[in-house]
Amino acid sequence: MEKSIRRYFALFALPGLICFFISFVIPFIWGLVLSFCSFTTITDVTFTGLDNYIKAFTIDNYFTNAFVFTLLFTIVSVILINVIAFAFALLLTRNIPGTNAFRTIIFMPNLIGGIVLGWIWNVIINGILAAFQMNIMSDTKFGFWGLVILMLWQNAGYMMVIYIAAIQNIPQDELEAAAIDGANGWITLTRIIIPSVMPSITICLFLTLTNCFKLYDQNLALTAGNPNHGTEMLAMNIFNTFYSRVGFEGVGQAKAVIFTIVVALIALLQLAVTRKKEEAL
Questions:
Q1: What is the DSSP string of 33-97?
Q2: Where are the alpha helices (DSSP H) in 92-184?
Q3: C-beta neighbour count of 273 within 10 angstroms
Q4: Does pTM top 0.70 for this prediction?
Q5: Engineering a disulfide at 52: which of 20, 28, 68, 254 sits with its beta carbon 3.0 to 4.6 angstroms away?
Q6: Which parts of the sequence belong to the ABC transmembrane type-1 domain (predicted)?
Q7: ω into residue 227 within 30 of 0, thus cis?
């Protein structure tokens, strides 16, 4: 009976595979082809070789600046989000009164849309800076830290929930044995808790890494890339190139391909490193 059921596994997976090919594989392959062409529509295509890729890096500095800005933003945000989320998870698994209420409050920003979050923080930050006769457009660093704070506020709660689930699955016998042996809080954290939750750390790092690199709607609502493209992230730069500059559709497509490959490579590298760490622990 079991063998006869297994025959139908592939059949059940078929609808998902068809959707995956239609929505991802085919558009990616067609997009890769278009990145080597000049076009205005998909029926008006002229092959241009590597011209679009050359233009992506030479025609202006905005793409390079956006890449550096996105990379720095991602490094800072990934570290802060995971450290603070993990700290919240440790704190809210200690039977503190009102734990469930605190968990709900911290998680709630994740339920708000990115555009709304951007506008909320735009009002908050500009309200604070107005006291100094400045606004978020006055300096690139205001936009940078505004985006970091926004991303932290939105994502820390979600990652906290993952860490809480992992910490609660640690066998209590191990923690009790460590306490009996005289292990202090730091030893318990580094020798028992962190090794036990490494799979969750891998997941949270992957999610925050990809979310930060792909950020668009919050960037649009908070700074719109101002001042002078100084806070323009990669997704926004690609969108602006493709839709706002006539004749640059191929360049925008080439940037999108570069973006996809870079994010995929960085995410795969992170997964390989953290999974290796899991095995070592």
A1: HHTTEEEEETTEEEE-TTHHHHHHHHS-SHHHHHHHHHHHHHHHHHHHHHHHHHHHHHHTTS--T
A2: 99-107, 114-129, 140-168, 172-180
A3: 12
A4: yes
A5: 254
A6: 67-270
A7: yes
Task: Identify the pLDDT of residue 13.
Answer: 80
d(C-alpha 104, C-alpha 99), whole Å? 9
Identify the burial level of 88 via C-beta atoms within 10 angstroms of its C-beta, where 0-12 means exposed, 13-18 middle and 19 or more buried: buried
Look-up of token digits 């006869």: 4
Q: Indicate the SS3 state at residue 267.
A: helix
CA torsion sign for 89, 93, 99, 101 is positive
Q: State residue 9's pLDDT score.
A: 73
User: What pLDDT does residue 1 have?
Assistant: 47
Who contacts 159 (Cβ-Cβ below 8 Å, separation ≥6)? 81, 82, 85, 86, 204, 207, 208
- Calculate helix-pair angle for 249-280, 51-58, nearest 10 degrees: 80
| pLDDT at residue 81 is higher than 80 | yes
**211 CB-near residues (< 8 Å, 6+ apart):** 151, 155
Question: For residues 89 and 203, what is the distance between their CA atoms, to the nearest angstrom?
Answer: 15
